[in-house]
Design a protein that fits this description.
Blueprint: E1 5-7, H1 8-14, H2 19-27, E2 35-36, E3 42-45, H3 47-60, H4 65-74, H5 78-84
Antiparallel strand pairs: 1-3, 2-3
Length: 98
């Protein structure tokens, strides 16, 4: 299933993201475009919204953007950790005799 992709300005409007915050996150490389249009405009996907939500949560906890950059560089986002911790399908069921 493919995710929708938006030019930068449309992305900011659709997901109600302040341009000043977005520019700062881009500058610190907390956000990166998923690609570029033919006229070199950056494109962002719906997955970027999830990343923004994690950045906002860290910001709400009192972390500065520079600290968030360090956290993401060293630890990554919670989703990446959760994906590694997913149990195997075999572990989801109780079986007798195993």
């Amino acid at each position: 299933m493919s995710k929708a992709v938006f030019p930068r300005d449309d992305f900011l409007v659709k997901f109600d993201i302040p341009e000043t915050d977005f520019r700062e996150w881009e500058k610190l490389r907390l956000l990166r475009p998923v690609g570029f249009s033919d006229d070199k405009a950056p494109l962002y996907s719906e997955d970027t919204v999830e990343r923004i939500n994690h950045i906002r949560k860290l910001s709400d906890l009192g972390y500065e953007n520079g600290d968030i950059q360090k956290i993401l560089k060293k630890v990554g986002l919670p989703k990446a950790i959760q994906e590694k911790a997913k149990p195997n399908e075999e572990d989801q069921y109780l079986t007798i005799g195993k």
